UniProtKB/TrEMBL annotation, chain A:
It is a multi-pass membrane protein. Keywords: Cell inner membrane, Cell membrane, Membrane, Transmembrane, Transmembrane helix, Transport. This is ABC transporter permease. The chain crosses the membrane at residues 27-48, 60-79, 85-112, 124-144, 189-207, 236-258, 270-300, 306-331. CDD domains: TM_PBP1_transp_AraH_like (cd06579).
């Protein structure tokens, strides 16, 4: 009798996956993305074409890759405003290094190393010196972007030496996936990187001590410290992880564009944070998933693309993206309030 | 041999003297009630024993060896477990994840260490059953009652097979029934030879379960005697200063 009572309580609390599903913000954002997709397919002749979908998925991959790193940072209760600058630094390091004729196998590790260094400095200042993340990463944004200008003397770089085809293939290439009954689908290579990163990050967040410690720090940093979680090391590592994501996106984006200028990634931090928040990450920390961040990025890009296709001035994009951020946070607040009552 | 001994421990923060020359011996399997008004130095004493900060003066000994704790993990390594007043729980994690916070169980797949949720849920469920608590391992702490949270925090200390458990106001914010359960748990810890330091404002709880009572007032130890030789009236006098020492 007692056991069956336990069981029925357990079922009520955990068993109903449907009620769990509809309580997830990620679910509703996925629904919104799918609805937008369907509506646009009918509203615009261009949207559902191979070429447009190819562009949409590639464009959103860059934001989504960084949004995964940003989600990890926000989950710990932090923020990283320097991602756009780290992206251009990474792109510039890989571009300038290859411009001198160096191998891509040297240039990419150098670029990612520079990104990791910027992340490590962010993390060190935040974890060990106690400077607020907002301040440190805002400063780092300015420093890193200026370093990218110093490095290139603010020129446009578009000659990448003997390994240029490899770099262009890395960012601009695609893989054909053949399916029954339809034409082969071309998957842009940045999307492949995104999928691999998404799988790795989802695994890390859920199935490793490091991942659980991210959530513990965001939930109650003092409790994490007192129970022996290496809070400072985890914080340094999470800013390095975020910077690494930005660095990877930087290399891929240069490969796609075939040029690198210092204006690359300007204002990108807003899109990235928006993707993460729209995907269900709580800015107060402790809640968020890698998958949510990717879905959030996808929704933003679909909306952005649809505005263009529907002939609405691109000047309106910021209004829509900003509105989405506010609505997402508003939903979260309303849900938290109804949960408390 | 005393499991924990403090010898003339002092702590000051700038000009503020939080603890002055406090000496204390705790034997295995002994329950010591530590009482005192707000600001008497109870929390400071707990934090020194927990390894949150070192004493300004004096020594801490475990089983006769002088120990120096630089961080909480050092104290835990010596077999000291703490239940904090605010319980130090993460609301966004499950009960089992909180119990195992900082010492999660993993299974190795080559170099990759994967969290062993099944083992953690199973062991946490056993611990909650032992505590006769209705807490379920998979529930989020956010949705729990005060008593359930207490059970999570106490279950956490049981993982490590500790020598001594310090409890900071464990009965302050829970139901009467849960208080009886917590006191029973303290008795069970004693049966296992684990020493318990019970920091509490609640006189009835201390007198129900403690073997010995220690009273701090303004950073000074003013009483240290078997509970049988004291009374709630005397302790109240000692706490407020109506009685100088006993």
């Amino acid at each position: 009798m007692a056991a069956s009572l336990e069981d029925s309580i357990d079922r009520r609390v955990h068993g109903n996956w449907l009620s769990w599903l509809v309580s997830q913000q990620t679910f509703w954002v996925s629904v919104a993305a799918v609805v937008a997709f369907v509506v646009l397919t009918f509203a615009s002749d261009v949207f559902a074409t191979q070429q447009n979908l190819f562009n949409v998925t590639r464009n959103f991959a860059f934001v989504a890759i960084i949004a995964i790193g940003m989600t990890a940072v926000i989950v710990t209760g932090g923020i990283d405003l320097s991602v756009g600058a780290v992206l251009v630094l990474s792109g510039m390091v890989v571009g300038m290094t290859m411009h001198t004729g160096t191998s891509i196998w040297v240039a990419i590790p150098l670029a990612l190393g520079a990104s990791l260094l910027a992340g490590a400095i962010n993390g060190f200042m935040i974890a060990y010196i106690g400077v607020p993340p907002f301040v440190v990463t805002l400063g780092m944004l300015s420093i890193v972007r200026s370093l990218a200008m110093v490095l290139s003397n603010n020129r446009m770089v578009y000659e990448f030496g003997p390994d240029q085809p490899k770099l262009l293939a890395l960012g601009g290439g695609f893989v054909s996936v053949s399916l029954p009954f339809v034409d082969p689908i071309r998957v842009p290579s940045p999307v492949l990187f995104l999928i691999v990163l998404l799988l790795i990050a989802s695994f890390l967040f859920r199935w490793t001590r490091w991942g659980r410690h991210l959530y513990a720090i965001g939930g109650n940093e003092r409790a994490a410290t007192m129970t022996g979680v290496p809070v400072k090391l985890v914080k340094v590592s999470v800013y390095m992880f975020c910077a690494l994501c930005a660095g990877i996106a930087g290399v891929l984006e240069v490969g796609w564009l075939g040029t690198v200028t210092t204006s690359l990634g300007q204002g990108m931090e807003l899109s990235v944070i928006a993707a993460s928040v729209i995907g269900g990450t709580n800015l107060a920390g402790g809640i968020g998933t890698a998958f949510g961040a990717v879905v959030g990025a996808a929704l933003i890009e679909v909306i952005r693309n649809s505005l263009i296709l529907l002939g609405i001035s691109t000047f309106w994009q910021g209004t829509f993206v900003g509105g989405f951020i506010i609505v997402a946070v508003l939903f979260d607040r309303l849900r938290a309030r109804s949960a408390n009552e | 041999m005393a499991v924990l001994e403090l010898a003339r421990v002092s702590k000051h923060f700038g000009a503020i003297q939080a603890l002055i020359d406090v000496s204390l011996r705790i034997e295995p399997g002994e329950v010591v009630g530590l009482m005192g008004d707000n600001g008497a130095g109870k929390s400071t004493l707990v934090k020194i024993v927990a390894g949150n900060y070192p004493p300004s003066d004096g020594t801490v000994m475990m089983e006769g060896r002088t120990v120096a704790f630089h961080k909480p993990a050092d104290a835990r390594g010596e077999g000291i477990e703490i239940v904090y007043q605010d319980l130090a729980l993460c609301d966004n994690l499950t009960a089992a994840e909180n119990v195992y916070l900082g010492r999660e169980l993993t299974r190795g797949f080559g170099p990759v260490k994967v969290l062993d949720y099944r083992a953690m849920f199973k062991r946490a469920a056993e611990l909650f059953a032992e505590l006769k608590s209705e807490t379920r391992p998979r529930d989020l702490v956010r949705r729990m009652s005060g008593g359930q949270r207490q059970a999570v925090a106490i279950a956490r200390t049981r993982l490590a097979d500790p020598k001594i458990v310090l409890m900071d106001e464990p009965t302050a914010a829970i139901s009467v029934r849960q208080i009886a359960e917590v006191l029973n748990l303290i008795r069970r810890l004693r049966e296992h030879g684990i020493a318990v330091v019970l920091i509490s404002h609640r006189m009835p709880d201390v007198f129900a379960v403690a073997d010995r009572i220690v009273v701090l007032r303004r950073g000074v130890k003013v009483a240290d005697k078997p509970i049988a030789h004291s009374s709630p009236e005397e302790v109240t006098g000692l706490i407020t200063g109506a009685i100088e020492t006993a």
